[in-house]
Input
Amino acid sequence: MTPLFELREVEKTFEIRRKGKKLGLRALDGVRLTITQGASIALVGESGSGKSTLLRVLLGLTPPTEGVALYQGRPIAQVRAENREFARNVAMVYQDARGSLNPRMTVEALITEPLRHFGICTAAQAPARVRALLARVGLAPEVAGRFPSEMSGGQVRRVAIARALASEPTVLVADEAVSGLDVSSQAQLLNLLRRLQAEMGLTLIFITHDLGVASYLCAEIAIMYLGRIVETGPTRAVLDAPAHPYARALRKAAPEFFAPLAEPLTGEIPSPIDLPPGCRFSGRCAYAQADCRLTDPALLRLNDHRAAACLHPLTQSFANV
Ligand SMILES: Nc1ncnc2c1ncn2[C@@H]1O[C@H](COP(=O)(O)OP(=O)(O)O)[C@@H](O)[C@H]1O
Ligand code: SF4
Ligand SMILES: [Mg+2]
Output
């Protein structure tokens, strides 16, 4: 079956200026990723590792500088440009939910907008649809008349999710959709997303800083470091026995799940303008060997389910994990 999304050796270089000189900043470098229909995948990594850029590539908003980014076997940016169905099918919940909603529009108007834009229902049917969507995300019908400024952070996120669901998408892409919320709002939203995934068969692509959120919500995980996916596989298996030393450091830094990641490691994170030769993690890696300074490891299969970008993966036998 053709995967829903496939990224092959995706590179995204931004041109930036430093002290009057033009430099290339490699936000993504050798990214390999396959996402099948109905999958739930968490993208995890420190700030600056390229997670948001990767989402923008998946959404067709940022074309890769090199490599191939496909949606159902066709270049994503092309599919997006040609076909309104793509924007309908692939919905996004932004990191800053409040900032993504027009403050001068009521909740009713905010949710009606995509209903109208995508021709989901008639104008007469819209109010009932809005209320059904509000119910779906656990909000009372009275909320329809309110403005975002009159609502709590948790409620605004629910509105953003209701708005994303209005187009009846098959893929929901979320950037830190639950971070910064109090524990009970976070738990309610996670339960909601999990239920929606089970009920609607949504494909879920979820950026998070929190390994607890990743393991609760997502069957698969992709761990990023400096623009590359360095480990991927079933969330439980990866977190129980990480193969990449960076994944291991992240896991060790989060002994308690459901807490934002602490700074996992000592040592300078290299600049994406000036990556070190060999493995990009070698300067911070407790397991580095001489060859790690020479060869840049690509993400390679360890078994049918798991892959790591490391010359000396930590778990030697992957037969059954
Ligand atoms: N439009 C842009 N122009 C220049 N540099 C950018 C741009 N967007 C992102 N970057 C850089 O790319 C790298 C990855 O950024 P980003 O994808 O936002 O990471 P994350 O979401 O993991 O924090 C960072 O070094 C960031 O500064
Ligand atoms: S390739 Fe070497 S330096 Fe890089 S993560 Fe693996 S062991 Fe560490
Ligand atoms: Mg980001």
Q: What stands out?
A: The first helix runs from residue 51 to 58.
